[in-house]
Amino acid sequence: MPPPDTARPAAATPRSLSGLLPFLRPYRGRIALAVFFLVAAAASTLAFPIALKSLIDEGLVKAAPGEQLLALREHFVALFAVGAALGTFSALRFYMVTWLGERITADLRNAVYRHVVQQSPEFFETTATGEVLSRLTTDTTLVQTVVGSSLSMGLRNTVMGIGALGALIFTNPYVMTQVLGILVLVVLPSLYFGRRVRKLSRASQDRVADSSAIAAEVLNAIPVVQSYHQQAREATRFDASTESAFDTALKRTRIRSLLVGFIITATFGALLWGLYQGTQAVLRGDITAGHLGQTVVFVIIFVGAVAVLSEVYGDLLRAAGATERLMELLAARSPVAEPEAPLPLPPARGGSAVEFQQVLFHYPSRPKTAALADFSLSVKPGETIALVGPSGAGKSTVLQLLLRFYDVQQGRILLDGVPVDRLSLAELRGRIGIVPQDSTIFSTSALENIRYGRPDASDAEVIAAAKAAFAHDFITALPEGYASFLGERGVRISGGQRQRVSIARALLKNPPLLLLDEATSALDAESERMVQAALEAAMKDRTTIVIAHRLATVLKADHIVVVDAGRVVEVGRHEELVAQGGLYAKLAAMQFDLQPGAGAAALETPAIPG
After folding, report:
1. Which residues is 414 bridged to in the sheet?
2. Any domain includes 302
3. CATH, residue 203
4. Domain presence at residue 428
5. DSSP assignment, residue 477?
6. Measured between alpha carbons, how far is 377 from 610 in angstroms, rounded to an integer?
7. Rounded CA gap, 501 and 242, in Å?
8. pLDDT band at 2 (very low <50, low <70, confident <90, very high)
9. How are the residues of the chain apportioned to helix, strand and coil, as percentages rounded to the nearest 5?
């Protein structure tokens, strides 16, 4: 899917609305009922001029003076019946189309969101979150306007316009032939204006999405923005983006206004010519006064229908652009696909086995730089492996590939002897628990945040996991305990507390393979000792891969794997690697001012670079 600045604004046409057909099909019965009420309301409107002609010719002109009052009563009752039918059918039409608009928009929004959350991280490397949010909100709102209002108005006025035009041709064939010849000249400029409106409608929606992307990015990083005192700069950047959106919308509105004005003026002028011819016919005695009155009302209905249709056409163009953008999201396919015939995983006993076999991997956004090159690693069930190395060495990439957020370009990754790309994503990720460096906290209670690790867990199991992660005490100290709302991104608790909630979440899941991405990096010394004890308990009877940051984890790991430039350069235990005087020894020396060969007892500060 192209990013916002490379979108193709000229592509949106009313045909783009055909993408909504799958969302319309489940409600065929309601749509048929809505169309029936719509046609009935249009027919009631078209019946009014006929009743008016009868009132004038038979109630006023032809009726004898003594019979006029009775005749007028009958004709006014008929007119009222037409009005009552129009009101009833219009109300039913309004209810049905509004229901359809709300229902279809909700289905569309749900489908797009459900599809987006299935995309791999590669999708979000090229698509801004604000762009997706704009499509989920602004674009679906445009679709709702069309399905729930504009489309109904357009169909109703189409029926009325065709009916009124047909009646005018039937009753005044000679005059209306001339009028239709004039109206043909209206169509040609309208096609030109319509193309301009289509282009500008799509461009306008893209500019709005750009503004949403800026806002989402800044609001998610508001502490950084404020700490660098860049509020004014970001506000100016957002102003520039919204002004760009406004300018594009203004161009669209200007062209659309010209289109509407031209169509209405030209149509009205052509029909006035027809009315002039009709008045001459009355003066000559060719038609009756009632006939002329009927013609006037049919002309008003037709002109009104054309005016509404010109407005609706603009809405259809905007909705077509919105639909196209939404269909682009639905058409996006994650490169990480479910296997056609997934293989089963053998039972995990005492942890899972992991093996990387000569893996080569490039991130899609950096195709010329290998994140991992000829990377091989073997982890036995129950082992604890620590990954250390300089920043950007590829440590976090190992965890992402193991979770199959991306697929490798060469080599294989095996989990318990089964290639990860032959496993269903649910089974693969169900066997893995992860504690990331940046702990994610959802806008809900502490209880539900921990339960995210296993949604069917009981309250007692959640509390047990919190105690194991040393999170129970601070959670019970919150105003509402486990029911306390933690705020968006966990802003109501500290960084260390957020990390302990994240650890509790992983412990609740109780997976055979645990991934720790610097899991204690945000903890103070006291919290670290408590959580480290919890992690050591959690590592028992399971395989653990740790991106090492704290010394205690490194010292007790079965193997320390030193990674540099995407390759394994050293493997061993702490004292062996220090004695070798390689990269690990250099990293330790820089962090702790150690000399090669120094033992573990010399390391008093519990940290290791990574």
Report:
1. 355, 419
2. yes
3. 1.20.1560.10
4. no
5. T
6. 18
7. 39
8. very low
9. 65, 10, 25
